[in-house]
Amino acid sequence: MGLFTFLSKEKKENLEKGLEKTKTTLFSRISKAIVGKTKVDEEVLDNLEEILVSSDVGVETTLKIIERIENRVARDKYLGTSELNSILKEEIEALLQENTTLDFSDFDIPVSSRPYVIMVVGVNGVGKTTTIGKLAYNFKKAGHSVLLGAADTFRAAAIEQLKIWADRVDVPVITQAMGADPASVAFDTVKSAIARNSDVVIIDTAGRLHNKINLMNELSKIRKVIQKLIPEAPHEILLILDASTGQNAIEQAKQFTAATDVNAIALTKLDGTAKGGVVLGISDQFRIPVKYIGIGEKMEDLQIFDRNAFVESLFD
Length: 316
Ligand SMILES: Nc1nc2c(ncn2[C@@H]2O[C@H](COP(=O)(O)OP(=O)(O)OP(=O)(O)O)[C@@H](O)[C@H]2O)c(=O)[nH]1
Ligand SMILES: [Mg+2]
Description:
Blueprint: H1 2-18, H2 20-33, H3 42-54, H4 59-75, H5 84-98, E1 116-121, H6 128-141, E2 146-151, H7 156-169, E3 173-174, H8 182-196, E4 200-205, H9 212-229, E5 236-242, H10 247-259, E6 264-268, H11 278-285, E7 290-294, E8 302-304, H12 307-315
Parallel strand pairs: 1-4, 1-5, 2-3, 2-4, 5-6, 6-7
Antiparallel strand pairs: 7-8
The structure holds guanosine-5'-triphosphate and magnesium ion.
Magnesium ion (MG) binds at residues 128-129, 152, 158, 161, 204.
């Protein structure tokens, strides 16, 4: 119990640190918007709407939040601006709670699907390789054996970078030469994982090819090849999105979810950006759950997304 409390306190502090910019920006904007006002009225709500949209919450989600607050204003006779932060927090929490997506609690994997194959996708530079390193660290820490596969063969540096993470975390990695067929690397990796009895396989893929159609075709080819070995794999197609790109992240989520069977999302680089509101928009608008958030460059800087903890930290 003591250890558990300690760990979750540390986790909470990291999350708060990671959300600092988003938080400071959001609340300084809100305080400016209510200067000299005592009552939540139409003008305050208009300003709030603008603030949420410019914090990258997204228009759709912002409108839902504003509508909830409007209903509350209509219901309660008087809402003071001093209550605005707590009302906003409650309504955001309630909105996210309406979503039926699952919450994940730890780095565990189903016993029935071993090796559990995770295929990591996303455009270049969003943090795929870094997230793989962090995932490997966390799965290993949770007592699982991990094998990585360097199926981003488009650049030599990509293979090297994954090797560096594998060394750092001390897990094995399967590679081939630059330019090799990514599907063949994926096949080798999964085959090797079966032979070694690995618990988790994580496959890196290229973020950039000659064009988008090529990229999507390649991802489906990798998938088909993996399925020759394990018909229900990849168990997880994890889409990585860079939160600091705001609306671009939402756009990429739309494109990838339309073209591939993405079933989990990781939002990276929440630290150092004021665009953390994008997490709210993405977890509200997409049926696919946000499973992980990246809040720094180190291996410890990955957390399982917990919507309640997220909103709590944002408004703490
Ligand atoms: N601050 C911060 N930086 C991050 C985070 N995740 C990744 N990065 C940084 O983002 C940069 C790009 O990360 P990569 O992991 O190389 O991204 P990638 O998607 O593999 O890129 P390509 O292989 O070029 O497609 C690196 O400098 C990482 O250190 C994060 O959560 N926070
Ligand atoms: Mg990479």
